[in-house]
Amino acid sequence: MLKTQEIRSKITADTKQFDLLNLHSPVLIEGKIHAPKISLGRKIPIPTPDFGGAEDANCQKLTQELWAAKP
């Protein structure tokens, strides 16, 4: 939102393996661009089991697709 100079973003992770130290919660970035607020997506960050299983990304193919879509 360039008119109001605000940002609103949500970052989530898709784990590939189990890790007890993962946040298990999205990271939220909201507010004015010069001073955004960064917080966790949960009020109480209680760890929940996430045993992984995310697929590997084909980085080479994705990069080629991005370059092909370049105007």
How would you characterize this protein structure?
This protein has 71 residues and is α+β, with helices and mostly antiparallel strands. The chain has one domain (6-69). The protein contains 1 helix and 3 strands. It has one helix at residues 59-69, and strands at 6-11, 27-32, 37-40. Strands 1-2-3 form a 3-stranded antiparallel β-sheet, with no helix packed on it. Strand 2 and strand 3 form a beta hairpin. The mean pLDDT is 78.
Number of helices: 1
Give the overall shape.
flat
* Residue-averaged pLDDT: 78
**Radius of gyration from CA coordinates:** 17 Å
The helix content is 10-25%
Structural class call reads: alpha+beta
Unreliable segments of 5+ consecutive residues: none
Tell me how many strands there are.
3
Number of domains: 1
Distance between the termini: 23 Å
Layout of secondary structure:
Blueprint: E1 6-11, E2 27-32, E3 37-40, H1 59-69
Antiparallel strand pairs: 1-2, 2-3
Could you write a compact summary of the structure shown?
The protein has one domain. It is built from one helix and three strands, in the order E-E-E-H. Strand 2 and strand 3 form a beta hairpin.
Which key phrases capture this entry?
71 residues, alpha+beta, 3-stranded antiparallel β-sheet, 1 helix
